[in-house]
Amino acid sequence: MGALVTVAIQWMAHHLLVVLTLLTIALAAAAAAVRTRTAADRRALHTRTAQLRRIGASMSTSPKAFEHALADLCRRDGCTKVTVVGGAGDLAADVLATTPTGRRILIQAKRYSPRTLVGSHDVQKVNGTYRDIHGCDLAAVVTTSTFTKSAAAFCTQVDIRMTDHRALALWAEGTGRPHWH
Q1: Distance between CA atoms of residues 56 and 69, nearest Å
Q2: 100, burial (CB in 10 Å: exposed 0-12, middle 13-18, buried 19+)
Q3: pLDDT tens digit string along 120-161?
Q4: CA 156/CA 161 separation, integer angstroms
Q5: What are the two backbone dihedrals, phi and then psi, of residue 28, each rounded to the nearest 5 degrees?
Q6: Cβ neighbours around 89 below 10 Å, total
Q7: pTM score, two decimals?
Q8: Alpha-carbon distance 83 to 70, whole Å?
Q9: Which ranges of the chain would DSSP assign to H, the alpha helix?
Q10: Would you state the torsion angle of the CA atoms of residues 32, 34, 37, 43, taken in this order, to the nearest 10 degrees?
Q11: Cβ pair 106, 92 in contact under 8 A
Q12: Virtual CA dihedral for 124, 162, 110, 113, nearest 10 degrees?
């Protein structure tokens, strides 16, 4: 075994140009593969977010698809560490992310019909968990509907961001600001 290693090292020393050329080709191929994958990921995200431009007015998505759509919007707008966590036992968190400024945000998604408003109890649940349970700096409730007056007053009082159907449509179109600003 030792003799084989010695022969291999001697061969590489005598053929250094060949070894360097092969290494250069391998590194170039790896870099090209990473660029291709990154570009494909960017195109896929662009396609998904382009489809979201109608999300504010559309009720055809499932609640889970709505959560994933919000996660895609966060990614599009520069968030990292974006995770969809919604479901039974989610403790009022559907999407967790890190904003471009490094703050952790919890998003509670409420895919409601226009006649079902987000109530004060919905935002109180978020307020009770986003800091202590989920370790977030910010919280937002995003809905395809709107908020009751008491819910809006509570959000204002405790600084939970509200995104109603109008603000959601603007955010999805790319003309509105994300709720972490």
Answers
A1: 11
A2: middle
A3: 999 999 999 999 999 999 999 999 999 999 999 999 999 999
A4: 8
A5: -65, -40
A6: 5
A7: 0.71
A8: 10
A9: 2-14, 16-51, 63-76, 120-129, 149-158, 165-173
A10: -80
A11: yes
A12: 120
Angle between helices 16-51 and 2-14 (to 10 degrees): 90
* Percent residues over pLDDT 70 in the chain: 90
| Residue 44: both structure tokens together | 């896929």
For the beta carbon of residue 155, count every other beta carbon within 10 angstroms: 23
Tokens (6 digits) for 32 = 């090209």
Dig out the tokens for 38 from the structure. Answer: 């990154």
Residue whose token pair is 């349970």: 133
Sheet holding 161-163, edge to edge: 80-84, 95-98, 104-110, 138-143, 161-163
Looking at the chain, how many residues does it have?
Answer: 181
Distance of CA 12 to the CA centre of its chain: 47
